[in-house]
Amino acid sequence: MQDNKPPRDPQDWRPATRLVHGGTMRSQFGETSEALFLTQGYVYPSMEAAEARFKGDEPGFVYSRYNNPTNAMFEERMALLEGAETARGTASGMAAVTAALLAPLKAGDHVVASRALFGSCLYIVQELLPRYGIATTLVDGKDLNAWKAALQPQTQTLFLESPTNPGLEVYDIAAIAGIAHDYGARLVVDNAFASPILQKPLQLGADCVVYSATKHIDGQGRCLGGVVLSTREFIETHIQTYLRQTGPALSPFNAWVMLKSLETLPLRVNQQMANAGRIADFLANHPLVSRCTYPGRADHPQAEIVRRQMAGGGTLVAFDLAGGKPAAFAFANALSIIKISNNLGDAKSLITHPATTTHQRLTPEARAEMGIGDGMLRLSVGLEDAEDLLADLGAALAVLESKPMAAE
């Protein structure tokens, strides 16, 4: 007789089940929804117990800057989803990136990173790390030989995001992980654009994965948060003490909101991706769009890599309008349903102009090297009806057709 009992070990659950039940701890009240523990500190039964907890000889919570029951549930659920041994939450995605890069390094070390990075990540790599004597080299992430050529005896970390912000380049994570490991270095991957639903960097060989949980994981424009996922050894040796002592703690309230959001993450990402595919096809065939980049299309420059390492094309579309900045601004201003915002991964469709927002600190030459032109727009596709989104985009393009303009 077939045993139809569900598996009891969370490691044996499928992803959707992990996202609903993973990491749940219930109080004496037996609540259905995860409990929200808004507390700074914890009471000990005795001075001896307090001493034992601070030494790490006895399990338990000490201070919510160190950890918190609600945060612990979020971290466990994320680790189960990602396939990581453990995870640590942070106050924001950039706190997660900074911790993953800075905590294991010391003066004299060297980092190799892809050139196409979010503006704040570029700041960490190009400006912050060198202040502490950590040398850095930027490379074309698509060029495996460039990664190899940039390695130095002091290289400890390779860092990339894929797909990239905002150009949606896709890099061969497995191959770059192999390059890092052959040299005795680690690979850190920012997986925020793909989300843990569509890409698993640890399975591809990465050593550490970071997220801005603000994006798809919350996914509804409410809370800031981040998370670092890796082996228990890496987290306990490098990340845990750094976070405890420097203080970029995740708010328990934000962790609770994200726990609830994780329950619907696959539903949201898959629907957003379906909408994004239709929009990319529409934009790619419009005469006013000079370039449309979407990892889910066969004409994406790294389509073969996308097929190997991603479960779909994602929720973002990048496209260029031939009229440059004036056309990009006029187009975005003419949109009705799609809102202007620099956030992404939201239930609402959002559009931004990278050259004047997320990457405005870069020189025009640096932006051009990353493929960020004055006519580029980055569209984060939401959960609205696809027909309404297509009508909104079509109406805005019609405005441009009625008022041709020259690029600045």
What can you tell me about this protein's structure?
With 408 residues, the chain is α/β, with parallel strands linked by helices. It folds into two domains: 15-106 and 152-158 and 175-262, Type I PLP-dependent aspartate aminotransferase-like (Major domain) (Aspartate Aminotransferase, domain 2, 3-Layer(aba) Sandwich), CATH 3.40.640.10; 265-402, Aspartate Aminotransferase, domain 1 (Alpha-Beta Complex). It contains 16 helices and twelve strands. The strands form two sheets. A seven-stranded mixed sheet has the order 1-7-6-5-4-2-3, with helices on both faces. Helix 5 (119-131) links the parallel strand 2 and strand 3 (135-139). The chain starts with 14 loop residues before the first helix and ends in a 6-residue tail after the last helix. The model has no long low-confidence stretch (mean pLDDT 95).
SSE layout:
Blueprint: H1 15-21, H2 47-55, H3 69-82, E1 86-90, H4 93-102, E2 110-114, H5 119-131, E3 135-139, H6 144-150, E4 155-161, H7 173-182, E5 186-190, H8 195-198, E6 208-212, H9 214-218, E7 226-230, H10 232-246, H11 252-262, H12 265-284, E8 289-293, H13 303-309, E9 316-321, H14 324-334, E10 339-340, E11 350-352, H15 364-369, E12 376-380, H16 386-402
Parallel strand pairs: 2-3, 2-4, 4-5, 5-6, 10-11
Antiparallel strand pairs: 1-7, 6-7, 8-9, 9-12, 11-12
Helix pairs in contact: 1-3, 3-11, 4-5, 14-16
